[in-house]
Amino acid sequence: MKHLLSTEDLPREEALRILDTAEDMADVSGREVKKLPTLRGRTVVNLFLEDSTRTRISFEVAAKRLSADVINFSAKGSSVSKGESLKDTAQTLEAMGADGVVIRHGASGAPQTLAASGWITAGIVNAGDGTHEHPTQALLDAFTIRRRLHGAASRGRGLDGVGVTIVGDVLHSRVARSNVWLLTALGARVRLVGPATLLPVGAASWPVEIGYDLDAAVAEAPDVLMMLRVQSERMRDAFFPGEREYSREWGLTDERLSKLPPTTMVMHPGPMNRGLEISAAAADSPASTVLEQVANGVSVRMAVLYHLLAADPRGE
Ligand code: CP
Prior knowledge:
Blueprint: H1 12-29, E1 43-48, H2 54-65, E2 69-74, H3 86-95, E3 100-105, H4 110-117, E4 123-129, H5 135-150, E5 163-167, H6 174-185, E6 189-193, E7 209-211, H7 214-219, E8 224-227, H8 243-250, H9 254-259, E9 265-267, H10 280-283, H11 290-309
Parallel strand pairs: 1-2, 1-3, 3-4, 5-6, 5-8, 6-7, 8-9
């Protein structure tokens, strides 16, 4: 694997290979000494041109657990704030020895541009680009679902027949897009539920069912209820009347939580708007996988960096 840019073009077998490697990495993370020498002498650059807590820090932890050198780069405090281009920034970082570049960018397609341009030869991981994709989030979500369902017997298994309902602001969600492609490739049945204003027109051609009634979706007791963050920072128009209405119609409230069977997993990629798309009780309930998702993110990102930078020195 030379780059990881999206899940739309990630074959099922390749995804399973990453998830199975992540199981091995999780075993390492459970040890007293959590380090492997695998990427000693390699340099990973975290090029974060949009804010992040979970993704940036977990890539840093993942690279360090594999003994790589890590350079953290953000727009604030760098020459990007003086107008330096992506090309010049990336070439500058590679001149300092970057073997892998983990990039988050506000523009959809920026990691693909970097990979296709030939500006640099480093392996590239998309850590979230605009409203397009967030492949490692989808991989850690799939890993979390598989582990909750199958525990120690997860290796080699897909998500065949698992019912996943993704709720809310799909329009602005790269997490939703990456999950649609990955979870369906792994065999899950995916349903999108939200207000019509926040469901992309193009979703009609995706391999999903579409619904508008969260209570009906809850009554169907899906295996997974994935709540999406309302991305106010990407909204220039009014997509719903107000926060109270959103919560009443589309939020996982305490009342809806009480109607879910205990077997339904409640997922959220974070950061959460507590009281808007998810109640505090739902976020903190035993059904919630929010912190498991964060912990699993380290194992999955270790697996991705391993396949990118260590598994095949030819990068194929
Ligand atoms: N889920 C996610 O991408 O969170 P961050 O924006 O904090 O990285």
